[in-house]
Design goal:
There is one protein chain. Helix content is about 40%, strand content about 20%. It is α+β, with helices and mostly antiparallel strands and about 400 residues long. Strand 11 and strand 12 (about 215-220) form a beta hairpin. Helix 1 runs antiparallel to helix 12, helix 8 packs across helix 16 (about 395-410) and helix 15 (about 380-390) packs antiparallel against helix 16 (about 395-410). Keywords: Signal, Sugar transport, Transport. Belongs to the bacterial solute-binding protein 1 family. This is Arabinogalactan oligomer/maltooligosaccharide transport system substrate-binding protein.
Length: about 400
């Protein structure tokens, strides 16, 4: 399972206290319940984003008299620390976090709902869906992470292929030694990276309801799943060979960077490696293999409000009025560049064609499920894909996996 936000430097937890003014300070101009409250909030953040949040916190203090205490945390500690400390009263009022924390937060009863009001219209829908659970919104999303098609423009130009088959044909016509490489994590399998192709056959891992929330209904069974499995086998090691269990993450990137492969599927975190040898690239949405739109997983970062906060209205006011602005979102982007979920900022940074390509891919994507049942899926799903790529019977292998997943989630 891919973890969003890995690579953030671990630091010892420290506390930065922003000196606040008293309750008699100038009231907020927003005109809601937080005006002149003189309360206090504790916000957990990592070191990268602390300066951007601090700037919004200072404005909040000056206008409302609310004292903001920023506690810097190692990002990878936040999920467990929040679950363990909120019930004791030692947790924060607000924490930064990944959307795939949500299932465990809801199950533990440590997170509160949030009303974004008209600010929801300024946020990409996939980001709002990611923080939605059982029809309720539980956070303020602000940044995205996804994968896309990266192509060697020296070999195949900048035009996006119209389909997977068109992609392979373009690469072969260009004389590429390898038309396409994709990470399978070697013998482990990487259903995360393969998911865009799977969804193009209409075979989602779980079914989403009308609110965007994931249900526990497995969506990989039936004709769509069988068609994807058949396609995977046809392009695996016993078929045309474009998909191979000899390709792990590093090998994938090395083959592309060497100019050996015309296309790959990767995230923005790999662009520097992919272009290290001077390869020129264009980023486009993942092409469809099954006729439907290829919808890769999208990870989302945002902010949660503690269910035990004594100042929930203040917390919501800070998020929806002081962080939900162009300036605050730009500061967050500059402090820790991630694909923006804030639409006006996304349009602004799309002047960079690489960013624009990943944003276009994210617009086609779906949130990586945050429901607890997802934890029972990855190993079975990855193993089935490896078996099929290596030449196992596609349909029977896939259907066995679906049955095992259904049994595992009860």
């Amino acid at each position: 399972m891919r973890k969003i936000g890995t690579g953030i430097v671990a630091i010892a937890a420290t506390t930065v206290l922003l000196a606040g003014c008293s309750g008699g300070s100038t009231p907020s101009e927003s005109g809601n319940a937080a005006e002149g409250s003189g309360g206090s909030l504790v916000v957990w953040t990592d070191a990268n984003r602390a300066p951007a949040i601090e700037a919004a916190a200072k404005a909040f203090e000056e206008e409302t008299g609310t004292k903001i205490e920023l506690v810097q945390k190692n990002f990878e500690d936040i999920r467990n620390d929040f679950i363990n400390q909120v019930p004791t009263g030692e947790g924060p009022d607000i924490t930064v976090g990944a959307h795939d924390f949500l299932g465990s937060f809801v199950s533990a009863g440590v997170v509160d709902t949030i009303d974004l009001g008209d600010k929801a219209d300024q946020i990409e829908k996939v980001a709002v869906d990611a923080f939605t659970y059982d029809g309720q919104l539980y956070g303020f999303p602000y940044a995205l992470e996804t994968i896309a098609l990266v192509q060697n423009t020296d070999l195949v130009g900048e035009e996006a292929p119209s389909s997977f088959d068109d992609m392979i044909a373009r690469a072969q016509a260009a004389g590429a030694e390898r038309p396409f490489v994709i990470n399978t994590a070697g013998q482990k399998g990487d259903a995360y990276t393969m998911y865009g192709f799977q969804t193009s056959f209409g075979a989602p891992v779980f079914v989403q309801d009308a609110s965007g929330s994931y249900t526990n209904e497995v969506g990989m069974g039936g004709a769509g799943g069988e068609e994807f499995a058949t396609w995977l086998g046809a392009h695996g090691e016993a078929g045309s060979g474009e998909i191979s269990t000899t390709i792990d993450y590093d090998t994938n990137n090395e083959l592309f960077a060497a100019g050996t492969a015309a296309y790959t599927v990767q995230g923005p975190w790999a662009i520097e490696t992919l272009t290290a040898n001077g390869v020129n690239v264009k980023v486009n949405p993942i092409p469809s293999a099954g006729g439907e739109t290829a919808a890769p997983f999208v990870g989302v970062q945002g902010f949660y409000i503690s269910s035990e906060s004594a100042n929930k209205l203040l917390a919501q006011e800070f998020l929806t009025t002081y962080l939900a602005t162009d300036d605050a979102q730009r500061a967050l982007y500059e402090a820790d560049p991630r694909l923006p979920a804030w639409k006006t900022l996304a349009a602004e940074v799309s002047s960079d064609p690489i960013v624009a390509g990943f944003l276009a891919s994210a617009a086609n994507g779906v949130p990586q499920p945050s429901i607890p049942e997802m934890g029972s899926v990855w190993d079975l799903w990855n193993a089935a894909q490896v078996q099929i790529i290596k030449g196992g019977d596609p349909v029977s292998t896939w259907n066995t996996m679906v049955t095992d997943v259904q049994a595992a989630i009860g």
